[in-house]
Amino acid sequence: MENFIKVLKLTPKGSIYVFFLSVGLYLPDLDLALLPILHHRSIITHSILLPFLLALIIEKYLKEKLPLNYSYITSGLYAGIGIHLMADVFSPATGFGAIYFPWPMKMSIGILTYPWLIFNGVYAFHKTQKDILENKIIFIILIVAGALWYAIFNEKSVKPFLLFGIIYSTVIFIKKYKLSKHLSLEELDTKNE
Question: What's this model's pTM, rounded to 2 decimal places?
């Protein structure tokens, strides 16, 4: 019964997270609506820039007005964008598959497309893990479910999910390793005192 109550308390946060994860899955393709200014796969929309700017705006102007911690909003966006970017790694880095600067340049970054997508995806997953402070396992299940759904129903391939799984689990492993290393150092410090 106690776990059931815990899940009920989490429901509004989980719902907000899932909603913004869903928005984040398709937010990078906002550039398609802005083709006169942005090229498809714009460096602006196919990066962590939008959730980063949203977090800055919320922190500066809206933090006190929000009914709960805004990290569920930005974390969901980061997660969705990260999943989208991992799927985009499987497109060729030419033509519509490359990352482009916006108008007036509208120039491709060419082969740097792959490192750009992977770096931004890794950073997005890092931010997702960092911003969720409680019940991490539930949010990990939600992001994994979102990645699987996106791979199957949007990309029609399991390859993006496999890449997501490798990169996301690596981010989690590194964060856990750093945390355990940090805790071990604190234990040594307290023993030496």
Answer: 0.85
SS3 track for the chain: CHHHHHHHHHHHHHHHHHHHHHHHHHHHHHHHHHCCCCCCCECCCCCCHHHHHHHHHHHHHHHHHCCCCCHHHHHHHHHHHHHHHHHHCCCCCCHHHCCECCCCCCCECHHHHHHHHHHHHHHHHHHHHHHCCCCHHHHHHHHHHHHHHHHHHHCCCCHHHHHHHHHHHHHHHHHHHHHHHHHHHHHHHHHHC
CB-based contacts of 48: which residues, under 8 Å, 6+ apart? 78, 81, 120, 123, 124, 127
pLDDT tens by residue, the chain, 193 residues: 455 455 545 677 888 899 999 999 999 999 999 988 898 899 999 999 999 999 899 888 887 777 677 888 899 999 999 999 999 999 888 888 899 999 888 899 999 999 999 999 999 999 998 887 677 888 899 999 999 999 999 999 999 999 999 999 999 888 877 766 665 555 545 555 5
Distance CA 111, CA 92 (A): 9
Rounded Cα–Cα distance for residues 147 and 145 (Å):
5
Helices 71-88 and 49-57 sit at what angle, rounded to 10 degrees? 170
Amino acid (1-letter code) at residue 110: G
The residue written with tokens 């919320």 in the block is 58
